[in-house]
Design brief:
The protein is α/β, with parallel strands linked by helices. Helices cover 21% and strands 32% of the residues.
């Protein structure tokens, strides 16, 4: 399996954005790890895992704080760079119930985000880590967090014409609409797997990069959170791979 990865190489110089076309409109990938649809005024991100360091520290693990601030700074960089009216979070906004039931710092940070972007519509496709935010399970503190962002929650998918957003692509089963002449098969965007790829720099030298991937009409986003792991993909399974490296994007191929 590993020899496939060894053949990956840069396809060109690194850039701060990566543009492509889909459904007759521009799609932009950003070096922060977001996907932007400029004509729709819409951005998608996945897997922020806010409160992860707080969760680890709650269980006695000595990890440094500050990852939430870094993640939210990245998010604001995206919102400052594009005329975004809707932000769609493709699951795992938070890492664990502990993040909701903690000392209130996360709640205050999200209130600050809302104050800075009062007209932005926040959407969340509920991920496997967002159980505390599900309408059927939320307690008073979770209600406060949802209210802080005026968060619009979606159980399986975010749906727009020609576009479907999922946390886990397996949730697409039974939800896809067949295309027709007026509306072709939709583009699908998902998160959940935290895709990463190993790039060979030289003999015995490797660098592991978070990445965007495309297989047909399906894009998978890298984890947006600053304190998240990654899952090594098999490059042969994808039509397009775009790696994140030192604040820039790098197209990768054989």
């Amino acid at each position: 399996m590993r020899p496939r990865t060894k053949r990956l190489r840069p396809l060109g110089p690194a850039a701060t954005t990566w543009s492509c076309q889909g459904l007759g409109e521009a799609i932009v990938l950003t070096a922060q790890g977001a996907m932007v649809f400029p004509q729709r005024g819409l951005a998608m991100v996945a897997d922020l895992h806010l409160g992860k360091t707080q969760t680890f520290r709650h269980h006695g693990l000595a990890v440094p704080e500050g990852s939430d601030d870094e993640t939210l700074e990245k998010l604001q960089a995206v919102l400052l760079s594009w005329p975004i009216h809707q932000l769609v979070i493709l699951g795992d906004l938070i890492h664990h119930q502990v993040a909701v039931d903690g000392d209130g710092r996360l709640l205050e940070k999200l209130k600050g985000l809302r104050r800075r972007w009062p007209k932005l519509a926040f959407h969340l496709v509920l991920g496997n880590h967002d159980r505390a935010l599900a309408p059927c399970r939320e307690g008073p503190l979770a209600q406060d967090l949802v209210a802080a962002l005026d968060l619009q929650r979606h159980s399986k998918a975010y749906v727009e014409k020609g576009l479907r957003g999922y946390h886990d692509l397996s949730d697409a089963t039974g939800l896809e609409l067949e295309g027709n002449e007026d509306e072709p098969l939709p583009w699908k965007v998902s998160g959940h797997l935290h895709p990463a790829v190993r790039l060979r720099l030289g003999p015995g030298q490797w660098q592991r990069l978070a990445c965007f991937t495309r297989a047909g009409r399906h894009w998978m986003l890298p984890a947006f959170g600053a304190f998240t792991g990654g899952f090594d993909i098999q490059p042969a399974d994808y039509d397009e791979i775009v790696g994140l490296v030192q604040g820039q994007l790098l197209g990768l191929g054989e």
